[in-house]
Design brief:
Layout (H helix, E strand, L loop, with lengths): L7 E3 L5 H9 L7 E9 L1 H12 L7 H15 L5 E4 L2 E5 L2 E8 L8 E8 L5 H17 L4 H10 L3 H17 L4 H6 L6 E5 L20 E5 L3 E6 L5 E14 L5 H16 L16
Parallel strand pairs: 5-7, 7-8
Antiparallel strand pairs: 1-4, 2-10, 3-4, 5-6, 8-10, 9-10
Helix pairs in contact: 3-4, 3-8
Length: 284
């Protein structure tokens, strides 16, 4: 990546152990760790109903979770790092990849859309950006991701294998063209999937060795959980299970844990997502 690149910058002040770990754990799939939690969403659903009445008619849990993650990145920037060429970089924005279907039918094709958001994005910014991308795709099926994939698959098998290997080599060296990175779902801050829309509970999704996406977030369908309160009384709560697959090389477990605690605090008070988050810069 060029020093003039404004999308990301290489970190130079990390401790020696953090810098050497990517040379020991070379592949992202070999450095992935798994985290799962259950979120109470009664306050989130109440907040969504209020916002829908105010005009955000398509607002969903997906919008809220993405906005909460954006706010978390603003305050805990190390989770927005990535590995490229065995070196650790940090992003200056937040790129989110999502898989969507044109229609909720068994044989309906999938595609991937990407959102690029500033760290100062609010829930309204997330709502507008995501809805615009989804509506655009469903009104005009097919996009640059689909067209690029189709162009590659038209190559003979041997040539396709060489072409993919060549692109992977360019990726390691930071020489993938910006036009390809812009549409690649594998070059992002986080990959999100709403498993609940399929009517099932969440899964753990692997990370991809190609590209630089260090986080995969999935969440399942709503379900009831019976939780004891402080007096020992059992209360029924509406919850969703959420799972993360994480590249452990970009930051340590303590930092990840603190980041997700912060995200849960936001979800307990979702009105904060309407505020422009204060941005904390990553280390030099």
């Amino acid at each position: 990546m060029s020093k003039k690149n404004k999308v990301a910058r290489k970190l130079k002040s990390l401790d020696s152990m953090t810098e050497i770990v990517p040379f020991i754990m070379v592949n992202r799939s070999g450095a992935q760790i798994f985290f799962r939690d259950t979120l109470e969403i009664e306050k989130v659903e109440k907040f969504i109903r209020e916002k829908q009445q105010q005009g955000m008619v398509n607002l969903s849990v997906l919008h809220v979770l993405i906005a909460a993650y954006v706010h978390t990145v603003a305050q805990r920037p190390a989770i927005n790092r990535f590995i490229q060429g065995q070196r650790i970089w940090t992003r200056n924005n937040i790129e989110i990849s999502l898989t969507i279907k044109q229609e909720m039918l068994l044989n309906s094709p999938d595609t991937v859309i990407k959102l690029t958001l500033p760290k100062t994005a609010t829930l309204t910014d997330v709502y507008n950006a995501l809805n615009a991308e989804v509506l655009n795709y469903r009104a005009n099926p097919g996009n640059d991701v689909d067209d690029t994939a189709k162009a590659f698959t038209r190559l003979p098998g041997v040539i396709l294998k060489f072409a993919v290997h060549f692109v992977k080599t360019l990726d390691y060296l930071g020489l993938v063209p910006k036009s390809l990175k812009k549409i690649s779902p594998f070059h992002s801050s986080i990959y999100v999937t709403a498993i609940g829309s399929l009517g099932i509970q969440t899964v753990y999704h692997h990370l991809y060795d190609f590209g630089c996406c260090p986080v995969f977030m999935a969440f399942g369908t709503r379900h009831n959980v019976y939780i004891p309160d402080s007096d020992g009384n059992i209360k029924k709560k509406k919850c969703i299970d959420i799972s993360f697959t994480l590249d452990e090389r970009i930051c340590d477990g303590y930092y990840y844990a603190d980041a997700f605690k912060y995200m849960k605090r936001l979800l307990r008070n979702p009105s904060r997502l309407d505020e422009i988050p204060e941005v904390v810069e990553d280390v030099k």
